[in-house]
Amino acid sequence: FLDYDGTLSPIVQDPDRAVMTEEMRDAVRGVAQHFPTAIVSGRCRDKVFSFVKLEELYYAGSHGMDIKGPTKVSNHKAKADEVLCQPATEFLPVIQEVHEKLTAKMESIPGAMVENNKFCLSVHFRCVEEAEWDALGRDVKAVLDDYPKLCLTKGRKVLEVRPSIEWNKGHALKFLLKSLGEFLHGTSQLS
């Protein structure tokens, strides 16, 4: 299990430029040839896939709220093109609504960026003047006051808006381990 930002790619000013090197991609591909391999990230699963570009991996985006198995034949693939788990689907409309409100609110703060990660949102403030951080936090909390089923957490110069459900990257890892365990120890035989 691998994280993307800060592990497979460097932490950068612009999250859309957090690109992994070809050398790192080759290393991950090599691991995936021998072991079931998953990338678990707070980012949108589709965005992480667009950065990594390896179809033989499992991807868990949105802090594990959007899990999908490999779409390319591998020794460890259970089922192709099947979404394995999306425990926060009911929150998609509210996440979209909050994304629109936060995006409008952050326009007045230079350097602030709102990233839609499908099942959660990231409000990046790495490029915001430190004097504006408190105001940014107050603005985000003010928007969320109208959404009691969402919670706010803080990462490295990022505020994360997530559904208030009992699910996180740890739950995603347990789900993947259980799914892979059933596959690896079930009726399918690996050669």
Automatic annotation (TrEMBL):
Pathway connected to this protein: Glycan biosynthesis; trehalose biosynthesis
Alphabetic keyword roster? Hydrolase, Stress response
Q: Which reaction does it catalyse?
A: alpha,alpha-trehalose 6-phosphate + H2O = alpha,alpha-trehalose + phosphate
Belongs to which family? Belongs to the trehalose phosphatase family.
Give the protein's biological function. Answer: Removes the phosphate from trehalose 6-phosphate to produce free trehalose. Trehalose accumulation in plant may improve abiotic stress tolerance.
Cofactor(s) recorded in Swiss-Prot or TrEMBL? a divalent metal cation
Which domain of life does the protein's organism represent? Eukaryota
| Organism whose genome encodes this protein | Aegilops tauschii subsp. strangulata
Q: Name one GO molecular function term.
A: trehalose-phosphatase activity
EC number of this enzyme: 3.1.3.12
One Gene Ontology biological process: trehalose biosynthetic process
Q: What class of enzyme is it?
A: hydrolase
A Pfam family recorded for this sequence: Trehalose_PPase
Q: What is this protein called?
A: Trehalose 6-phosphate phosphatase
